[in-house]
Each structure stands twice: as structure tokens, then as C-alpha cells.
Amino acid sequence: MTNTELNRKxxxxxxxxxxxxxxxxxxxFNVKYCSCGYKYGFKDEEHSNPxxxxxAKDLIEVLMKREDWRxxxxxxxxxxxxxxxxxxxxxxxLNPRLLCERFLEWEGK
Length: 109
Ligand SMILES: [Zn+2]
Description:
Blueprint: H1 3-14, E1 21-25, E2 31-34, H2 56-63, H3 69-75, H4 90-94, H5 96-108
Antiparallel strand pairs: 1-2
The structure holds zinc ion.
Zinc ion (ZN) binds at residues 19, 34-36, 38, 47.
């Protein structure tokens, strides 16, 4: 699975709208439109998607806002009783894909 596919799945699970190029205007060259109707500029970095597969912090921040965060915390080995103290397996930070896959696995059950 590519990072894009992984991010796509995570966004779907989390209900986050993902922006995808759906249409290119061949006549005016380089004009692209997003699935939400947005028209891309030449240097468009603002209209982008979260990259959970590359950054564990971004996924954790979103998951922390969920009601089932305590359960997922337990799932990845964090103490459910220490809300501020996060000791996380270093492998999740080094390879955020692991955290994404773990979340999808857990969510799918
Ligand atoms: Zn969009």
C-alpha cells in the first residue's frame, strides 16, 4: 500500500475530507480542479491533505480528540490513566506507517 492509499483510508475512517485532483483543463494547461471544486494555483501547497503516513504526531493529535482515544491508547501500549504523559513506542515515531496500519487494524475490528 502506498502512503497515499494509506492516508486515503485513514481520512475515510476519520471522516476527514480528502482533496483529490479530479479534473485537468488541457486547454489552459496546468489548471487542476479538486474534488471539492477548488481550483489549484501554480504553487499550491495550502490545498493539501494531511500526511499521516509521514507524521505520527498529526495522527495522534486527531485521535486524541476522539472519544475512543483511551481505548486506542491502551491498544498501542500507552497508559489510559496518564492523559498528559505519553510514552509511545519509538517505532511508531520512526515509522508512522506502523501507527496508521495499527489504527486501521484496530478500527476494522
Ligand atoms: Zn479540495
